[in-house]
UniProtKB/TrEMBL annotation:
The gene is wzy. It comes from the Bacteria. Coiled coil: none annotated. InterPro entries: O-ag_pol_Wzy (IPR029468). The lineage of its organism: Bacteria, Pseudomonadati, Pseudomonadota, Gammaproteobacteria, Enterobacterales. This is Wzy.
Length: 440
């Protein structure tokens, strides 16, 4: 039965892809969903594909636990994933019948001299602080070793400066006419994140640029020419090799003869998270409130930072009082490993299952597709909307391995963006200029 469900999963996924491509060709589907579908395949489907095509044993991972699940748990895991995909199919059908994405809507520009001047001024102002941050980073690596960044990288103060630096670069990328130099700087600095090991930061710094191009490109098919495909493929696999090498060196894991298989095993651990959540679903530590984790935990973190209280990291109190499913499952699975700083990761489908079982997984898939469609629709309305969509879409792309409502978490970049917007509005108001985030 498990093997049959695995095959059904692949069939449903292919149906979802085909329906999406047909709707996309008819301009009745959001381009952003292509990125989400790719992330979903990487973080969820990779384990299932490996289980079918290789000797990989479904239900195990590279993390600190060895999760061989029983027959019923495996069945529920695959069924939950299948229902989520069916939900995305239903969402695509609903959007295709209600929304049309006109080709002219992709030919947008937010070239704005006042925003560009404000961004240049801000960029020049923070450059000295960026240099100080880089000096601290080099000193930290010299004292603690290169791979200590994986564990203690958050101890380097001033990371918000680099976030603000990227935010001003995004603003310049959108508001300037000549964008090539800004794009080159963004990619170069973002790649630094890859080699110091912060892959999640790398995703949130590079993905907004990809989102930007997908949203503005009128003739996006030109990016799929042979030379562009080859260049992107070389870059992609080069990044995968670098990421895999860094992770393996950090955890003292042999890379193995097949880098691709090893990489996919480590990325698809969310399937195991779903299995653990189903296995522990009756534990009193788990409740429907886990889906509110991005709201609750980010509010607590923000409040603590305002009063100068620093988080102690993994602790029994946090596992019991937090809404985070990742922390709760990690503590339930192996308390000693959790207290040592390790974790099982997260999965949006696992949260949905805890909240409402199969029905919640189905509805969650529909809502995900509909929300991405709405985001793409509103992104073209203003400069503010465009950058906002760029920032939160990266979180949505990570949600298969994170939290269902991850886009609602108040991270530093979003807070800085609100400050950036308010400051720009205030300066225009005080200079007696008419404020507008629309095209100039």
């Amino acid at each position: 039965m498990v093997n049959i469900l695995l095959c059904i999963n692949i069939i449903i996924l292919l149906i979802c892809i085909c329906i999406y491509l047909i709707a996309l060709k008819s301009k009745k589907a959001p381009r952003l969903f292509a990125l989400y579908l790719g992330a979903f395949i990487l973080f969820i489907e990779s384990h299932i594909i490996l289980a079918i095509t290789t000797s990989f044993n479904f239900g195990t991972s590279e993390w600190f636990f060895n999760g061989e699940f029983d027959y019923n748990t495996k069945t529920e895991v695959i069924t939950s994933i299948n229902l989520f995909i069916i939900g995305m199919i239903l969402g695509s059908v609903f959007i295709a019948s209600t929304i049309t994405y006109k080709s002219s809507s992709y030919d947008v520009t937010f070239e704005n001299k006042s925003i560009a001047r404000f961004s240049w001024l801000l960029l020049v102002s923070i450059l000295p602080f960026v240099v100080v941050y880089l000096i601290n980073l080099i000193a930290f690596i010299s004292s603690n070793g290169f791979y200590s960044l994986y564990i203690n990288g958050n101890k380097i103060s001033g990371g918000y400066i680099l976030d603000l630096f990227f935010l001003t670069l995004y603003s310049l990328l959108i508001s300037l006419k000549n964008k090539k130099k800004i794009l080159f700087i963004i990619l170069c600095v973002a790649c630094v994140y890859l080699f110091i090991g912060t892959r999640l930061e790398f995703m949130f710094k590079v993905f907004p640029v990809l989102i930007y191009y997908i949203l503005i490109s009128k003739n996006i098919h030109k990016y799929f020419r042979l030379k562009n495909i080859l260049a992107i493929s070389i870059l992609f696999w080069g990044l995968i090799f670098s990421m895999q090498y860094s992770v393996s060196a950090r955890d003292n894991i042999e890379m193995g003869s097949n880098i691709i298989t090893t990489f996919l095993k480590q990325q698809g651990v969310s399937v195991n998270v779903i299995g653990i959540a189903i296995k522990d679903k009756n534990n009193s530590l788990l409740s429907e409130s886990v889906i509110l984790s991005p709201l609750y935990d980010s509010a607590i973190s923000l409040a603590n930072s305002l009063v100068g209280v620093q988080s102690n990291g993994n602790s029994v109190e946090f596992a019991e009082n937090s809404f985070s499913l990742s922390h709760k499952l990690s503590y339930l699975e192996d308390p000693s490993a959790y207290l040592a700083g390790y974790g099982v990761g997260g999965a949006a489908i696992a949260e949905l299952y805890i909240v409402g079982g199969y029905l919640a997984c189905l509805i969650g898939g529909m809502l995900t597709y509909i929300f991405i469609s709405i985001l793409e629709k509103i992104a073209k309305k203003s400069f503010f909307n465009f950058i906002f969509v760029m920032l939160i879409t990266g979180k949505i792309l990570y949600s298969p391995r994170g939290e269902f409502l991850s886009f609602m978490s108040a991270d530093r970049m979003l807070i800085l963006f609100l400050i950036f917007t308010f400051s720009y509005k205030f300066l225009l108001a005080t200079s007696n200029k008419k404020m507008s985030f629309k095209n100039e």
